Amino acid sequence: MASNATQPGKDGTEAETIAISILGWLANEPELLGRFLSLTGMSVSTLRQSAGEPGFHLALIDFLMDHERTLMDFCAATGEKPEHVARAHRALSGPPGLDTNSF
Known about the structure:
Distance between the termini: 42 Å
Shape: globular
Helix content: 55-70%
Largest sheet: none
């Protein structure tokens, strides 16, 4: 298994890289992609349009963080470390208690 794991980063670059990796992985997992689309209310066409939107990367990482088995399957398939995904989630979601829906 080739490892595409990211190295720890100090800014949002690592988080964006991980989110893009999640999207690529989901593209090869039709059942999980369907679940992601259902949970987010997106369709395949809106997925393409949303890929550049500010909250999209966070939505991808949230999807993994909300289901440990999916997170671990992603990590096993890509060689990514779960703690890197968690750090990416913190980087994109802001400090604890920050309500990003109020912006």
